[in-house]
Specification:
There is one protein chain. By secondary structure, the chain is of the alpha+beta class. The chain is 45% helix and 17% strand. The chain has a four-stranded mixed β-sheet with strand order 4-7-6-5. The radius of gyration is 55 Å and the shape is elongated.
Length: 229
Amino acid sequence: VFTDSSARGLKLATPRLRTHNMIHRLSAFALCCLASALLLEPRPLQPAARAAIAAPVRSPVPLMKGKAKAAKAVKVLLTGDVKGLGKAGELVDVKPAYAENFLVSKGLGNIASKEVIARVAEEAAAAAAAAAEAKKAAVECKASLAQTFGKNGLFIECQVGPNGKLHGSVTAQDVASLIDQRANVKLDKQNIALPSISELGTYSADLKLHPEVSMKVDLVVKKNPITIS
């Protein structure tokens, strides 16, 4: 049972209650807004994410079309000299069209079979071995000549006239004969180079023992004790 005083107290408490409820509602609304703001606030990206965003978008790489293979070279045995290519008897590698349309058609070469290639290789190996042996022999010959003539030179006696001039001349054949007699080494006169000799004295003779081996020998021209009047 409400008395008049209770009713008056209720009337006074109602506005306060409403105000209190309003404050609670406003507080709840403010908390909701704050939570929404925190959820919607952008966060700094991780480095990997930044790199992914910053990286340009690449278009797919198109597949490269394979180039057509060039025609395989063929071996040709030259039967004639071809300027800028090779000499007769040599094996050369050329394009098939060049081989057929030029070398073969003009009689300058033939397509080499496996048997021909093997034969040429054997001949080349034999020639290389022979060349090496010839050079070795020339080096040994040079050592022998140096031992025989290196200290005193090669002496040759000639007739001298009253004026001190030689009767005749000293030739490459004379030197070749003396070398054969005294050192048992045979040299072609074409491989002996001499200066002009017209009087007594010491001269230098150039001996070519091999395309890659040569030497000099002193040639001492002396007066023959036997005088021919």
